[in-house]
Design goal:
This protein has helices at residues 16-27, 66-72, 76-83, and strands spanning 2-10, 36-43, 55-63, 89-98. The chain is an alpha+beta fold. It has a single domain, classed as Alpha-Beta Plaits (2-Layer Sandwich). A 4-stranded antiparallel sheet has the order 2-3-1-4. 12% of the residues are buried. This is Dabb family protein.
Length: 100
């Protein structure tokens, strides 16, 4: 299995409603994308404010294999989500690793 972690940093154009809409789209991936085992997403509520660096939304997706993770990128639902970030995304950090 593989873990896919993403944290999003948005610009000033993002609204709380838009963030909630994006979370809803991410959570809707479950059961719709082959090889996706689990997905969680939510707003960053850390109390470690010195370490937040403006990143406000986190995503964790577990895939059954590296091949499933690779197939996720071009999947139409994922591509629709990516297109929806236009105009609001400032930066993103991605970490993928095998689950031991």
């Amino acid at each position: 299995m593989f873990e896919h972690l993403v944290i999003f940093k948005f610009n000033a154009a993002i609204t709380p409603e838009r963030e909630q809409e994006l979370i809803g789209k991410l959570l809707a991936f479950k059961g719709q994308i082959p090889g996706l085992v689990e997905v969680t997403a939510g707003l960053n509520v850390t109390e470690e404010t010195d370490n937040k660096h403006g990143y406000s939304l986190g995503l964790r997706v577990t895939f059954e294999s590296r091949e499933a993770l690779r197939a996720y990128g071009p999947h139409p639902l994922h591509q629709d989500f990516v297109k929806g970030l236009a105009g609001v995304l400032e930066n993103v950090v991605v970490v993928d690793y095998p689950i031991q």
